[in-house]
Design brief:
about 130 residues; two-stranded antiparallel sheet; 10 strands; about 50% strand
Amino acid sequence: MMRFLLILFLVFPFIGLSQKSIQLKSKYFGIYKGKIPAFLMDSGKDLLSVDDCSITIEIRRETIQFTIGSNKKSGEYKVLLEANDYFVLDCKINGQVANERIMVFKKGEKITRDGLFPQPNAKLFKTNN
């Protein structure tokens, strides 16, 4: 029992240190604009054609806002992963069951949004606003 407690007290402080949160740098904050490409959706009876649609994503220090067509939604994000060329953001949007997934590229001032099925992925580019 004593050996178990000793191991417990030695290991737990290091577990907390290994879970360092990743912060997105301020140069990636801003407004990104693009289009969700047209796609086909199976209604169960027919294939419906959905036209392309404008999409704007604004990334702030702690929050994110999506504007798809005339529909605005906002929420919070956390950085899941930092790779050599990009960050992956997991976005929890208010009133939405599924989280959004955004890839922020370190070069080129662009992001991609993983489309929620059956929507295709969208490429967005940073604006100078």
